Amino acid sequence: VGVQTDMATPALARFGSDTVKRQFLQPSIAGDFVACLGVSELGAGSDVAGLKTTAVKDGDDYVINGGKMWTTNGTQADWMCLLANTSADKPHKNKTMICLPMNTKGIHVERKLEKLGMLSSDTAEIRFEDVRVPQSFRIGDEGKGFTYQMIQFQEERLFASANVLMALERIIQDTITYTKGRQIFGQPVLANQVVHFRLSELLTEVEALRSLVYRATQLYTSGGDVTKLASMAKLKAGRLAREVADSCLQYYGGMGFMHETQV
């Protein structure tokens, strides 16, 4: 759902024409279309400027060749928010965003990728072979795609940071409940003061993250440049997710290794 609301559609909502909004954004909001984002490639993950997929003009169309990797929703999407090179200009000025229907001839879903986590979402490798799409499906101006994606990334980072808050709270509260009931050496695990200290520390860190997310979101909704705060929030969220999960897991003993234990 986060891909739909905060990764694949923000640039379309902000920069797309009324025509492409009606064709792609409106049914996505209504839940009739599933969207995916086509940015990352083999060799061009964090280095967005280094992507190789091309969209070459041919009459009124673009002809797309290349591929995308780690595409969430890729096996079920109705359309892709695609970032591709449309000229030989500098890497930050030669990219364009295009709404690409996923049932277009020449699009191949090569495989569904097997991930370590986040198993509720599908992730795919996509290949494009002479895929023809109307130039009218372009989002905004040609050559502005890199800038649009950098703006779109900020919303993605804020979503990722906010999304983790509830999960972290749940893990800590579940751990409190479990350690109240688990007896060891004649008393509940939670009766050990060091456990109190650690869980209190983790809750404090979660609240610090919440404050950062709220501050960044307020700045974003007021039209400010949120690049720094959104990046800080995502960094803090990622590190805290590992820290909370690992710390709480220790208090479950062998049960922490079982699938039936939510942590």
Describe this structure in words.
The radius of gyration is 22 Å and the shape is elongated. It is an alpha+beta fold and 263 residues long. It has helices spanning 2-6, 10-15, 18-30, 145-181, 193-221, 227-249; strands at 35-38, 54-58, 61-72, 79-85, 95-101, 107-112, 123-134, 138-139, 183-184, 187-188. The strands form 3 sheets. The protein has a 4-stranded mixed beta sheet. The relative contact order is 0.12. Strand 9 (183-184) and strand 10 form a beta hairpin.
The major β-sheet equals:
4 strands, mixed
User: What's the SSE pattern?
Assistant: HHHEEEEEEEEHEEHH
Strand percentage lies at: 15-25%
Widest sheet, order of strands: 1-4-5-8
Q: Total number of helical segments? A: 6
What would the average pLDDT be, to the nearest integer?
A: 95
Q: Which structural class do the helices and strands define?
A: alpha+beta
Low-confidence stretches: none
Shape, principal axes of CA atoms? elongated
> Distance N terminus to C terminus?
22 Å
Total E-strand runs: 10
Write down the Rg.
Answer: 22 Å
Overall helicity: 40-55%
SSE topology sketch:
Layout: H1 2-6, H2 10-15, H3 18-30, E1 35-38, E2 54-58, E3 61-72, E4 79-85, E5 95-101, E6 107-112, E7 123-134, E8 138-139, H4 145-181, E9 183-184, E10 187-188, H5 193-221, H6 227-249
Helix pairs in contact: 4-5, 4-6, 5-6
Features:
single chain; 263 residues; alpha+beta; 6 helices; 43% helix; elongated
